[in-house]
Each structure stands twice: as C-alpha cells, then as structure tokens.
Design brief:
There is one protein chain. The protein contains 13 helices and no strands. By secondary structure, the chain is mainly α. The longest helix has about 40 residues. The chain is globular, with a radius of gyration of 19 Å.
C-alpha cells in the first residue's frame, strides 16, 4: 500500500517549476470530478444528463489541452520575437524584486485575459472561437472544461506582455493559477466567500451572470473584478442569478459544438453578445 511517506517523496522529486504549473490544474480537475459526483449523487433522469454533459466537457477539455501544448510552442516563439523590443530595465527590475515582479505579472496577465475575453465576445471571429465555452445549458464546473480548440486571438494579445520585461516562466505559472481558478468559477456548489474577497476576485455567484443568455458580455474578468468595474461591465453577485444558461438548444456532440461558431460565421450572421454596457444594464 502506498503511504503518505511515499507520496511526499514523490512530490519532493518533482522540479519546483513543474509542480507550480501542474498543481493548480490537478487541484482544479479533482474538484471538478468531485462536483460531478456530488451532482450525480441522486438517481433519476437528471443523472444521465449530468454524466453526458460531463463526458462532452471532458472530451472538449482533453483536446483543448493538446491544443494548448501547440499553443505554448507558438507562444514561446512569439514571446521571444516581441521580447527583442522589450524593456531591459523593466526585466532587470522584476528579477531584482521577484515578489513584486510575480504580483505585477499576475495582474498584467489578468488584464490581457480580460482583453482576450472582450475580443471573444465583441468580434465575430472572436465569438466563433469562444462560443464553445458557452455551449453548456447548466451552470456547473464542467463549463470550465468546455474550451475552444482555436484560441488564436490569445496569440495576438498575450505575447505583448513581453514588451514589459515579464519573465515567460513566471507568466506560465500565473496562467496556470488563473486558468485553474476560472474552472472553479463555474461551480454550482453553494460556496460563500467573504464580501471583501468577492469585491476583488471573480466568484461563481458573479460569473453566473456571464453565462446567462442575456448577460454574456458582463463579468469578463478572469480573476479580478477591477477591469469590469472600470469598463462598466460589472454585475454584482448579489443580483439574482439568471434562469437560463447557454444556447436555446444545447448539443452533446463536441465536434458540432466546436465548429458551430465557424459555421455561423461563414454561413448565417452570428449573434454574439450585445453591446457591453447594454448587456450590463440588462443583467442588472
């Protein structure tokens, strides 16, 4: 039987950087599995729907993970190109002050994620790529696994952070923490957070409004709520939750979900989220 000592030694053998990147994802996926088990604890017709939706989301997330490996290679290439024009002074400052550098890097990554999300909702081609994330008709943590297989516009935004001298390895750790939190933002578990925490960090009660059928262009921040408050796209988690999520008619076919936005783009006129401020007003 494998004991705690063996597990501890196994963890100790993992390089710190690898652990810093993989641990947030491992915790997030474990909690998603726990929520699925919690949702399916009661037998009945809804149980099959939960497992079907979870299987769809898991397949989408698995392929997105493979795409992410290719994304990382291209990201590194573009990062090195942009870094040539970056600030050497800023890079040296972050190295001399690693804690400050890590904190500022996380904030900068979060801002770039907000911009990425805005593009996903405010442009036709961005929505074609992003709409798989909004394909679930229930609000639970499996939505966090429903990721696009074509996150192309991130490659136009994230490498720009290299201009400010940020270290790519630190950025990758920040991305792992942020992405893992974003998965957990979709939980349907009755988790309560302190008011001061909810004022700064995006929580499930606030992120629900982003997935409501009338409020997709609100609460776009990956981790912090600051950007939405400044842009006028913030809806408090105290506002009653939406009654309906996702498209009118959901699908459990991963391939269809992933290509539907592109079919809409090149076929009929798509209907991405409405104007940011209008959507915020509706959600209130």
């Amino acid at each position: 039987m494998i004991g705690i000592g063996y597990f501890t030694r196994w963890l100790a053998d993992i390089p710190p950087y690898t652990l810093a990147v993989s641990l947030p994802y491992s915790v997030a996926f474990a909690l998603v599995a726990a929520e699925i088990a919690w949702l399916a604890r009661r037998p009945g017709p809804g149980r099959k729907a939960i497992f079907t939706s979870a299987a769809t989301a898991t397949f989408m997330g698995g392929v997105a993970l493979l795409v992410g490996c290719l994304y990382a290679v291209v990201m590194k290439f573009l990062w090195e190109l942009v870094a040539v024009a970056g600030s050497d002074g800023a890079a040296q400052f972050w190295r001399d002050h690693p804690i400050v550098g890590a904190a500022v890097t996380f904030i900068a990554w979060d801002l770039s994620g907000w911009v990425y999300h805005v593009v996903g909702h405010r442009t036709r081609i961005g929505w074609a790529a992003h709409q798989p994330h909004h394909s679930g008709t229930d609000f639970d943590s499996t939505l966090g696994l429903r990721q696009t297989w074509a996150p192309f516009h991130g490659l136009l935004i994230h490498p720009l952070l290299a201009l400010f001298g940020f270290d790519l390895e630190v950025v990758v750790v920040c991305a792992a923490i942020s992405n893992s939190w974003q998965v957990l933002e979709h939980t349907s578990l009755p988790v309560r957070f302190p008011r001061w925490f909810s004022a700064v960090v995006m929580t499930p009660s606030a992120h629900r409004h982003h997935h409501g059928r009338q409020g997709g262009a609100v609460n776009l921040g990956p981790f912090f709520t600051w950007w939405d408050r400044l842009a006028g796209t913030w809806v408090s988690g105290d506002v009653p939750a939406p009654e309906h999520y996702g498209p009118d008619h959901g699908s459990n076919n991963p391939l269809r979900i992933e290509v539907q936005g592109w079919l809409d783009l090149f076929g009929r006129k798509p209907e991405p989220s409405s104007d940011l401020r209008e959507a915020a007003s509706i959600a209130r």
